[in-house]
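anyone seen this seq b4? input:
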Amino acid sequence: MADDADELKEEHVEALEIMQKNSSRLGLLINDVLDISRMDAGKLRIEPTTFLANDLISELEKSFEPILATKSQKLKVSMSKSEVWVEADRNRTAQLITNLISNAHKYSAENAEIRLSVSVEYENLSVLVEDEGIGISEEDQKQLFTAFFRADNRAAREAGDTGLGLVIARSIAELHGGKVWLNSIENQGTTVAFIIPGVTSEPVIDPDVEEELTMLAQRSLLYPDTNCEDIGETA
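predicted toks r here
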């Protein structure tokens, strides 16, 4: 329906936008609740691969552009141009960083600047997210990593936060053998950081293995309904 929005009346377009935002929020809530359920059952898992952290940060920066634009905010990214390879769960690492930037966005004012700093400390990937938002009282900071906890203030209610983001972020970091910590001052801003181990060198691909994978990929185009394990025999 949104694709044909140019044929709709203005009030219908506004209704569609509200539906999209609410469905997006519902989707995030469902995913967060599922992750909390997995955590409680001890079934939240990570699947490490070796990936280029620079590419991941670039993807996240672009994905946040339309979100931050709704409040005319800016994300300032600081990261070395040198390639940083990390052995970790790429999707979960993206989720961790996304949760921190999302919080900074929600609790910062219009035209605010959010800073994302990425560096390497020994063999750890270090990520820092800073904002100049409403900050968090010392009392509320004691409960921030409690599931479903939200500060009792107007900004928190308007943000519509589930109170699960930081809990999930901490679990993801700990599953990697890392940690998350937070510093905040009311009415001045919040800094949330994490480190995870796994910084490594660029993976070296065995040319024989690469040739075999290329050959199997080409054969799979000729035999699309054939199991990859049986392609050699079928071909």
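The CA atoms of residues 67 and 105 lie 8 Å apart. The mean pLDDT is 80. kinda curious what u guys think
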